[in-house]
Design a protein that fits this description.
Strand content: 15-25%
Bound molecules: 5'-O-[(R)-(carboxyoxy)(hydroxy)phosphoryl]adenosine, zinc ion
Number of helices: 12
Order of helices and strands: EEEHHEHEHHEEEHHHHEHEHH
Helix content: 40-55%
Largest sheet: 5 strands, mixed
Shape: globular
Oligomer: single chain
């Protein structure tokens, strides 16, 4: 089954063709970073307009690179949430129109489930069923949550951030350090030359009485205090945000974020037996997080699955792959799908 996937939930305009839920025939991503950079972050209105402008070309490129023709496609899959409402609507409208035009079924995909599925698109990845029970950390610029999967489609949300997403914490910290947008990759690069113990930033633990919507506070995250701590530190020590001191500050800040994320994964591992740990989303590109998770998984005797680098950030291969694996909203219900900005997982 050849599925064309479309992804427009945030600031990446993406289309891909995946065969049998596993084989990526093409994956085209147009990143809007240049359009949002002058504003220091994603501007929803700009994102929607950019999707409208670039999506037709991106879909055309994905089909051309796949070596297939329209009649070879068996379904059109599209992200319908979570994400920016206006941005999601562009992809959803395009997918509906396209599916009608080529007379193929439409499949609506949950963006967070697609991120989770991205680890199964790595060469040599096990079958989903063989990886379960699976503990997944999904960490991006918009989301940070811990999910336990007992089978494909059977998820329990164990914890999530109560304020900023981990990627947002990287980006906001980078902004305070005068680095460009998005700041995560810059912090990662600078931190490689710094000492993580140069400054001790706070690792916020969510209190027992915090409102978590019934989730275990020990498995929830909070990053807003860390960002504030960096702002106060830089006010007291302006030199820490400049020149030769920058790598140490970046490394210490990064270590605080990574400690909080890895701490949550470690506590979740102690809550119940799992066979596999996975990390996905843009923050899963972070080299320190990857190394720390590798060490954690090794110590716990579980396998660590990470997506290929190209599939950490938003892409449509994970959308088409998940649909090809049999997941998503299909049939009549798919035609009635609306953009769902707060669509949860689990
Ligand atoms: O998954 P993604 O492309 O988009 C969202 O769905 O949000 O994630 C983007 C986020 C940004 O916040 C970016 O700073 C962060 O991922 N990121 C990183 C790294 N590469 C991207 N954060 C830390 N280290 C990195 N190497
Ligand atoms: Zn994402």
């Amino acid at each position: 089954m050849n599925v064309l996937g479309i992804e427009t939930s945030c600031d990446e305009t993406a289309a891909a063709v995946v065969a049998g839920g596993r084989t990526i025939r093409s994956s085209t991503v147009h990143t809007q970073v240049a359009a949002h950079r002058p504003h220091g972050g994603v501007v929803p209105e700009v994102a929607s307009r950019q999707h409208g402008e670039h999506l037709p070309r991106v879909i055309g490129a994905a089909l051309a690179h796949s070596g297939l023709a329209w009649p070879d496609l068996d379904a059109v899959a599209v992200t319908y949430g979570p994400g920016l409402a206006g941005a999601l609507l562009i992809g959803l409208a395009a997918a509906k129109a396209l599916a009608l035009r080529i007379d193929r079924p439409l499949i609506g995909i949950n963006h967070l489930e697609a991120h989770l599925y991205s680890v199964f698109l790595a060469p040599g990845a096990p079958r989903f069923a063989d990886a379960c029970p699976l503990l997944a950390l999904i960490a991006s610029g918009g989301h940070t949550c811990l999910v336990r999967a007992s089978a494909l489609g059977a998820y329990a949300r164990l914890g999530q951030t109560l304020d900023d997403a981990a990627g947002e914490a990287f980006d906001k910290g980078a902004k305070l350090l005068g680095l460009g947008y998005p700041g995560g990759p810059e912090v990662d690069r600078l931190a490689a030359a710094g000492r993580a113990d140069a400054i001790r930033f706070p690792r916020t633990r969510v209190g027992l009485r915090a409102f978590t919507g019934g989730l275990d506070p020990a498995l929830c995250f909070s990053f807003s205090g860390l960002k504030t701590a960096l702002a106060y530190y830089l006010r007291a020590h302006p030199e820490a945000g400049r020149g030769a001191a920058l790598p140490d500050t970046a490394a210490a800040y990064q270590e605080a974020i990574v400690d909080v994320l890895v701490g949550g994964v470690a506590r979740a591992l102690r809550r119940g037996r799992v066979r596999t740990v996975a990390a996905a989303g843009g923050v899963a590109l972070n080299s320190r997080l990857r190394a720390r998770l590798q060490a954690l998984a090794h110590g716990a005797g579980v396998r660590l699955l990470l997506p290929p680098a190209a599939l950490c950030a938003d892409n449509a291969a994970m959308v088409a792959g998940l649909a090809g694996a049999g997941r998503g909203v299909s049939g009549e219900a798919a035609w009635l799908l609306d953009a769902t900005p707060n669509l949860p997982i689990g």
